[in-house]
Design goal:
With about 50 residues, this protein is mainly alpha-helical. The chain is built from two helices and no strands.
């Protein structure tokens, strides 16, 4: 890898959001996730699978 290629690849890697553990996307995503869990639990309970 040349110095020019390394210099252009580094800033792109810093800006890329992958959704991994280091990507802090905030409270909204957490609330939506827990809401989905509760809705699925209510659905499963209503149809009698538990």
């Amino acid at each position: 890898m040349t110095a020019t290629a390394a210099a252009t690849a580094t800033p792109a890697r810093r800006r890329t959001r992958t959704g991994g553990p280091g990507d802090r996307s905030g409270l909204l995503e957490t609330l939506l996730g827990w809401t989905l869990v509760v809705v699925i639990a209510m659905f499963v309970t209503q149809i009698g699978l538990m």
